[in-house]
Specification:
It is elongated, with a radius of gyration of 40 Å. Helix 1 runs antiparallel to helix 2 and helix 3 runs antiparallel to helix 4. It has a three-stranded antiparallel sheet with strand order 1-2-3, sandwiched between helices. By secondary structure, it is mainly alpha-helical.
Length: 244
Amino acid sequence: MGRHEQRQRASVCVIRDPRCAVPRWPWLIPPLGLALFPAGVVAALFGAGALLLVVGAFMRYGLGGVRISGAALPEWLAAEAALREVRLRWPALGAMAEPADIRPTLEITRYNLARLIAARVSLRANLDELRATRTDLAAGRPRESLGGCLFEELDERIEAAEDRLRDLDAQLAARTAALGRLAASLDHHERRELAGARARVLLAGDLPGETLVADPLAEVGERTAATLAAYEELSELRPGPSET
């Protein structure tokens, strides 16, 4: 979106926090140093600026970024497509658009969706590990011999993880559904606006297929038919050979 703040490498998406910006002032260090200091100092300043940029990028993408991969990637790409549709169709609202620039809101929504998807992936992995641990712990041994407290704690933790997973599923379903409805409503609005513009253009012009003048060949045909009919009537009125 926008500056393509998402990197895809080996089927991994990294979504950064839009509130953590990379400082741009280190780019000014080399040209200022070139204008004010000798070559050696310029090289040192250039290295310092490059180091600051690398550190800023790491802070933005390494620490503040959310990684999505594997089975969660299709769900994320579907949400990304809906966000892109909203961004592209938002200007069609014109004066009705509130806010006028939807991009900052979409960036935060995008990051929050990524956090929810990543949190659910992590929670599912933790829940699978808890269930596998309980199964391995009980393998071949009676539950009473291991102590009831350990199993009870595992059961409580599994139950809490399942509750939290259901909550995450509900949140993601609600947010993606709302995003899909917004994209669909914007699409319908844009289609209606385009249809209204076409209707105004069509109504402003004349209908095609202008009425033609009388066909001269049809007139000739009518006159010829009338002449032939009159000739036949005259022929019938002429006396026959026996009447002369």
